[in-house]
Design goal:
single chain; about 450 residues; alpha+beta; conserved putative lor/sdh protein from methanococcus maripaludis s2 fold; Elongation Factor Tu (Ef-tu), domain 3; OB fold (Dihydrolipoamide Acetyltransferase, E2P); eight-stranded antiparallel β-sheet; 22 strands; elongated; MdtA-like_HH; RND_pump_MFP; coiled coil; MdtA-like_C; Efflux RND transporter periplasmic adaptor subunit
C-alpha cells in the first residue's frame, strides 16, 4: 500500500504545468479623430417679405403662379387704377390753375416795383402785391407735391416683387378690396441661401471659447469647423454650411445660445420651418491624432471602462481608460493608452489580471478603411464659434449700415501703442479714472 501511494505522488509531481491561455491581441494605432457635435436646428429663410397693398382699392388682376419663383421687380398684382388716374388728372389741373395764378401775381408784382419807385402806388399796396406773389408761389409748390403724391399712388397700384424668391399662396381673389390695413396679400421667401438656427449649450460654448484662448496663447492655429446637415435618410446634405451669427447672450430658460448657419440651397431641398439635424465637425490638426481601439476589447465594471494590456513578458494588466467618441467600430482613447501597445481583443474571458497569456495576432484588422479627412476651406466670418473678422461683403449681405468698426478699433489700438491712449474730452467724467488692467485690456 505504501508503495502504491508513493507511486501516485511521483506521478502528480511529474504532471506538466498548465500553459497560459491563448488570446488574440492587437497593436494599438493612432489616427485622426474628428469630434462631432449634433444639434437640432430649424430652417429659416434669409429674407421674407409680406406683400401688402400701399393704397386702398380693388384687385384688378393677379399675375403670378402660387408657389413659383418670382424675380425682383416682377409684377404681382394690379389694383384698379381708374380712381387714381382721375385723382392725378385733378391734381394736374389744380397745378395748372395755380401756375396761371402765379403768372398773374408775378406780373402785378413786377409792375408794382416800377410804380412804387415813382410814387404811383403806396408801400402798403406794394406789400399786398408781394404777399400775393409769394402766396401764389407756395400754392404752386403745394400743387406740385399733390401731383407727385397722386403719381406715387398711381404707381402703387402695380404691386411688384421686392426680392427674388418663392412666392406663397394668394389670400385675396380678384375684386377684393385691399389696403394698407388689410392682411398680407401673399409672402415671398428667399430660399437660396438659407439659414438654419440651432441652440448650443452654454457649457459647450464656454469650452469652445476656452479652447480658442488656449490655442491662441500657445501659438497654435485655430481649429476649423465643418457644418453639415443630416438628412432624414441619414445622408449628409451635399453643401456644407458656414456659421454666420452667434447670439450675444444665453437664454436663461434653456441655458443655451442661438447660433445661425448659412447653407447654399440651389435645389430648394431645405424649406422654411423644417427641422433638421446639424452636425459640426471640429478639425484641430495634430491634437486630433488619438489612439483607436476596438469596442469589443473594452469592458466595464464599477470603477469604469478598462482593457487588458499585454506587456513584453506577455503578462496581462488591467488598465482603466478615459474614452472619447466612437468612430464606427473603434473607440477613441483620450487618456490611459498609447499607440503601439498591445491589448486583448478576443478571449477576454480567459484573461486574469497579472497572469501570463499566450498572445496571438488577431486575424481581423479594424483599422482597415480609415480615412484622413481634410478641414473645410471656408472659414466662418464671426468670432468665438467664428474665425476672422466680418468682411464688408458679409456686412452688406446682413443689411448692417455703416462701417464694421474695425477702423475705429485700429485707431484706438494705434493710439495705445504710441503711448497716447484714446483722446478724452475735458468734460468726460471718466478722464481722471485710474486705468483698469482687465477691462482696458479687453
Amino acid at each position: 500500500m505504501l508503495l502504491f501511494v508513493g507511486g501516485c505522488a511521483d506521478k502528480k509531481q511529474e504532471a506538466p504545468a498548465s500553459k497560459p491561455p491563448p488570446v488574440e491581441v492587437l497593436a494599438v494605432r493612432a489616427h485622426q479623430v474628428v469630434p462631432r457635435y449634433e444639434y437640432v436646428g430649424r430652417v429659416e429663410s434669409t429674407d421674407e417679405v409680406q406683400v401688402r397693398s400701399r393704397v386702398e382699392g380693388y384687385i384688378d388682376s393677379r399675375n403670378f403662379v402660387e408657389g413659383q419663383l418670382v424675380r425682383q421687380g416682377e409684377l404681382l398684382y394690379v389694383i384698379d387704377p381708374k380712381p387714381f388716374v382721375a385723382t392725378l388728372e385733378n391734381q394736374r389741373a389744380n397745378l395748372a390753375q395755380a401756375r396761371s395764378a402765379l403768372t398773374i401775381a408775378e406780373r402785378n408784382y413786377r409792375r408794382g416795383l416800377e410804380l412804387v419807385s415813382t410814387g404811383a402806388i403806396s408801400q402798403v399796396q406794394m406789400d399786398e402785391l408781394t404777399g400775393t406773389f409769394e402766396s401764389a408761389q407756395s400754392q404752386v409748390e403745394a400743387m406740385e407735391a399733390n401731383v407727385e403724391s397722386a403719381q406715387l399712388n398711381l404707381n402703387f397700384t402695380e404691386i411688384r416683387a421686392s426680392l427674388t424668391g418663392i412666392i406663397g399662396r394668394n389670400r385675396f381673389t380678384n375684386g377684393s378690396l385691399v389696403g394698407p390695413s388689410s392682411e398680407p396679400l401673399t409672402s415671398i421667401v428667399r430660399m437660396d441661401p438659407i439659414f438654419v438656427n440651432f441652440e448650443v449649450p452654454e457649457n459647450r460654448l464656454f469650452a469652445v471659447q476656452e479652447e480658442a484662448e488656449r490655442r491662441r496663447q500657445s501659438g497654435q492655429a485655430p481649429v476649423h469647423r465643418e457644418v453639415r446637415i443630416k438628412q432624414p435618410n441619414d445622408e449628409l446634405y451635399p453643401y456644407p454650411g458656414l456659421i454666420v451669427f452667434v447670439d450675444n447672450q444665453i437664454d436663461p430658460a434653456t441655458g443655451s445660445a442661438l447660433v445661425r448657419a448659412r447653407f447654399p440651397n440651389p435645389e430648394r431641398l431645405l424649406v422654411q420651418g423644417q427641422f433638421v439635424r446639424v452636425e459640426i465637425s471640429v478639425f484641430s490638426g495634430k491634437d486630433a491624432i488619438k489612439p483607436l481601439i476596438p469596442q469589443a476589447s473594452v469592458q466595464e465594471d464599477m470603477q469604469g471602462r478598462f482593457v487588458y494590456v499585454i506587456d513584453d513578458k506577455n503578462i496581462a494588466h488591467k488598465r482603466y481608460l478615459e474614452l472619447g467618441q466612437r468612430e464606427g467600430e473603434l473607440w477613441a482613447v483620450k487618456d490611459g493608452l498609447k499607440a503601439g501597445e498591445r491589448l486583448v481583443v478576443n478571449g477576454l474571458q480567459r484573461v486574469t489580471a497579472g497572469k501570463p497569456v499566450t498572445p496571438q495576432n488577431s486575424a481581423l484588422d479594424p483599422y482597415k478603411g480609415l480615412k484622413t479627412l481634410k478641414p473645410p476651406q471656408q472659414t466662418s466670418p464671426v468670432e468665438q464659434l467664428r474665425e476672422g473678422e466680418v468682411t464688408p461683403e458679409e456686412r452688406a449681405e446682413s443689411g448692417a449700415a455703416g462701417t464694421d468698426g474695425a477702423t475705429e478699433l485700429r485707431e484706438i489700438d494705434s493710439g495705445m501703442e504710441g503711448g497716447r491712449g484714446p483722446s478724452r474730452d475735458s468734460t468726460d467724467p471718466n478722464r481722471d479714472r485710474e486705468p483698469d488692467a482687465y477691462f482696458d485690456g479687453k
